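Researcher: Please translate sequence to structure tokens.
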Amino acid sequence: MHQYENKHTHIIGVALALEMGLGASWVSAAFWAVLLSMMIYLRLIQKRRQNRELQESVEDAMIFASSRDAMDPHNMQQVMSPVDQMSMTSQQSSMLSQVGFAS
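Model: Translation complete:
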């Protein structure tokens, strides 16, 4: 039979080294779980913020579209009084005569 002799002295015992390795693996697993949960939480916050900004953007676009529709020249002629329409046509004709398109 083979017999193994070792005269080397270890700094720590084998049982203590095994326990330290197991403890470190448990601590790293807990650390990984905490980091993963933080990343998921931050992603949810980011998604919530993006949805809120998208809703505000859609609301702003609706306001812009309604104000643009109100400022449309075809709608303005319906709202303006005849005197305003006459001054508008005189301004347009004076502009055209300055450019040289009037007959």
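Researcher: Any highlights?
Model: The mean pLDDT is 78.
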